[in-house]
Amino acid sequence: MKKILAPLLFITAMTAIVLLACSKDKAAESTTVKIRLTDNPVDAEEVNVDIQQVRVKFREDSATGWANLDTHAGIYNLLGLQNGVDTLLAVGTIPTNVVKEIRFILGTNNSIKVAGVTYPLTIPSGSESGLKIKVNKQLNGTLDSLLIDFDAALSIHQLGTGVYQLKPVLKIK
Question: Is 64 among the domain residues?
Fold first, then answer.
């Protein structure tokens, strides 16, 4: 009986060690990523962007390489995010990998306020394909934070009297 019990205990102990080692490896395969937003100044009183969802692409495979982050959806006045001020836009746990692209899916409540008058701000394909920024950044194994500068000064174009369009210029800082 003792001859059977000793090898059985040894096999049980080794199995437990292997399982614990594997679970630690899986924890190291994912990281929590935070997406933060800031802005450059522009000659307007408000630039409001309706951000509904933040998505991260971490593989070349366009069908399964996307992850939706826990997004703080809402209307963000970009001009309130200047001079070192930023806001947490989204957070989520994704595989530790290279982030290829970040995409903001927008709603329809986008506007600009100039000289006390609020105008609609049109964004070509903002609600369909979203605003895209190429990243190609390797995430580390614990926590990573990406600061995205939404450059309103370079992004806003006045097409006519009261007609404004947003062609976003986004940069990773």
Answer: yes
In-domain check, residue 25: no
Q: Which domain holds residue 133?
A: 30-172
Pull the structure tokens for residue 113. Answer: 């306020």
Residue 143 located in a structural domain? yes
- Count: domains in the chain: 1
pLDDT in tens, the chain (173 residues): 445 544 444 444 444 444 444 444 444 577 788 888 886 667 889 999 999 999 988 876 666 678 899 999 999 998 888 888 999 999 988 877 788 889 999 998 999 999 899 999 988 766 567 788 888 887 776 667 888 888 888 888 888 777 898 888 888 87
DSSP three-state, residue 16:
helix
Residues belonging to the chain: 173
